[in-house]
Amino acid sequence: MDTTQRTEQQRSADRRRRELLEAADRVVLRDGPQASMNAIAAEAGITKPILYRHFGDKSGLYAALAKRHTDALLDSLRAALDAPADRRERVEATLDTYLAAIEARPQVYRFLMHPTEGGQTADQGFDVGKHSMPLLRRMGEELATVIEERLDLGPGSQQLARVWGHGIVGMMHAAGDWWLGERPCSRAELVRSLADLLWGRLAAAGDKMGGPGF
Amino acid sequence: MDTTQRTEQQRSADRRRRELLEAADRVVLRDGPQASMNAIAAEAGITKPILYRHFGDKSGLYAALAKRHTDALLDSLRAALDAPADRRERVEATLDTYLAAIEARPQVYRFLMHPTEGGQTADQGFDVGKHSMPLLRRMGEELATVIEERLDLGPGSQQLARVWGHGIVGMMHAAGDWWLGERPCSRAELVRSLADLLWGRLAAAGDKMGGPGF
DNA sequence: ACGTGCGTGTTACTAGCGGTAACCCTAGTT
DNA sequence: AACTAGGGTTACCGCTAGTAACACGCACGT
């Protein structure tokens, strides 16, 4: 039968694809986002054209690789966000989950943040921000839907939720990136400071005397 | 005299340097962050090795270029932050200034955010986040000092201020990037939504009924 | 007047990248 | 036995960042 044959081949192809992705994973974990196609092919024990047959081009491979990690991280984040606890505890748990993830595997984190930068071929017409940082975008959208679903924000809630989703994710990202580089405090302290910020301590803080009255 | 001679040469070199930077600026404005050294040299009417004599390598040129824009933008932001008005108005003015800047010249913005990505040569040992996004880091530190100077945050204020500085900048950045790509609302609305977030509306919002109680 | 540096510029090259065309070789079908 | 279909490789293209090595010009000390 034709179909069985095709499924057989499909299976083989899928297995190969997974093997290749795992090899690519190892290389990215070792070399960072600038892992070369040659290196990945060598790690997988084959040569470049096979990679290109499977993934089209580098962006394709990177997209597939990024999807795996992004999906995994998003699952953890959803779990943290859905845990049974009050809102502040959930927010803190989610922040902590994210920070723990980037702390555990910084190379992967860095790869996810800057996947397809700097190709020398037809990257033209790239519509600023279009294929940049899919992880951040996905997290932002995800958070936006959660906020919009669960919070009562009055009129214009959908738009507000999206702004907040992307804004909060960006806050988490930037603070995490900085923290990962300088390690100025413990993860728990960072989480608490960020939650404090989200909880309005900025607006509630009093002016210092002597200043121009910020 | 030796000194006059040296200053003469210094002047000449500086003038050339400025010319080269302006040429590079034009190319980056046209081609985005992936402008090639060849293209920049051609735009300046000279050839590659001169660029390398002046700036060392691509990172050097990009750093010099980034410093100009970053300094200019930081000046605008400082001005907005120092305007005579109450705190919320100042925050909104600062957000708006940033968003107006990235809206006006997205190519430059994109260049500033991802300056040295994707080189294929010895970028190894790059210490995650080390030479990434100098603009965000500088803005974060700047805002941190302002916060720490002017706000009364109680014990641990310095660390808290730094976390907040980087966090707020990241929020602004991510929201701006997303907004620039999708244009889901006007700049003013975005500014208002972000300020609302900073002003604690997240913590103050009530739960929607029927949900699991976010 | 004459070499002698030194700054400024070029050509021509290397090494490595992403990506591809052309070939090759083995397994299964008829 | 002949033929075909995939999986695989070699060898290449065009591009990039970066670098020798060479060439012109101009002020200088002797």
UniProtKB/TrEMBL annotation, chains A, B:
It holds the Pfam family TetR_C_32. GO terms for molecular function: DNA-binding transcription factor activity; transcription cis-regulatory region binding. It comes from Streptomyces muensis. This is TetR/AcrR family transcriptional regulator. Residues 14-73 form the HTH tetR-type domain. Keywords: DNA-binding. InterPro entries: DNA-bd_HTH_TetR-type_CS, Homeodomain-like_sf, HTH-type_TetR-like_transc_reg, HTH_TetR, Tet_transcr_reg_TetR-rel_C_sf, TetR_C_32. The keyword DNA-binding applies. Signal peptide: none annotated. Residues 36-55 bind DNA. It comes from the Bacteria. The keyword DNA-binding applies.
